[in-house]
Design a protein that fits this description.
By secondary structure, the chain is mainly β. The chain has helices spanning 14-23, 46-53, 115-118, and strands at residues 4-10, 26-32, 40-45, 63-67, 70-81, 88-95, 102-111, 122-125, 129-134, 143-146, 155-157, 168-169, 176-181. A hairpin with a 7-residue loop joins strand 2 and strand 3.
């Protein structure tokens, strides 16, 4: 599995180390997970991290940290965002192994103009992303749903999405992701579903 590599420096654990990091313009992180004997407190170049997060895979970007902790493949796991400045203050990095599956949230996008919309219906995307489980090298950038065949009354649940090979959905409730409602004052003539099963 080829990944981007970022140099990581050890920092003092706790608030004092975090404050010192930020003062130097660095991004404080911690690394933990499979194969890590103890949590590693470190810092990364903020601009390099932002660059990685700006790639198509965004927050699901797998990369390697290289430093005193050794070379470890990681994925961003928990973000601490400043609510006022809307900037990343801290990231927990989860160590991953190529053979293990990880759970990540993947954006859902739609393509096409549905039959229902042509007749005046309204397409509503209830969920903007879905949680999936897969190996690190199989994490999709996004999941695209073609809504062309959707008619008034159509509903697409999490389990009904066509996922890429090796990718499986993770959910407690099989909630609708996309629904097509009738427009204001419209009759539900010919209503149905591309897949009518509940």
């Amino acid at each position: 599995m080829e990944t981007y590599s970022l140099g990581i420096n050890r920092r003092e654990p706790g608030k004092k180390g975090v404050k010192a990091c930020r003062k130097e313009g660095l991004l404080p992180v911690v690394v933990y997970g499979p194969g890590i004997k103890e949590t590693f407190s470190g810092s990364l170049e903020r601009k390099e991290v932002i660059k990685l997060l700006s790639t198509p895979k965004g927050r699901n970007m797998v990369f390697t940290v290289d430093g005193e902790c050794g070379k470890i493949n990681v994925i961003p796991y928990v973000f601490d965002i400043d609510p006022v400045k809307d900037m990343i203050r801290h990231i927990d990095l989860l160590a991953i192994r190529e053979e293990d599956e990880v759970e990540v949230n993947v954006p859902v996008m739609t393509t096409g103009r549905s039959k229902g919309e042509v007749l005046g219906g309204k397409l509503l995307q209830v969920l903007k992303e879905v949680k999936v489980s897969c190996r690190p090298d199989a994490i999709p950038e996004k999941i695209v749903v073609d809504v062309t065949s959707f008619v008034i009354g159509s509903r697409l649940k999490i389990s009904q999405i066509a996922y890429p090979e090796g990718v499986t959905p993770v959910y407690k409730q099989d909630a609708p992701v996309i629904v097509l409602n009738k427009g204001r004052g419209q009759v539900t003539a010919g209503a149905g579903h591309a897949d009518d099963e509940d």
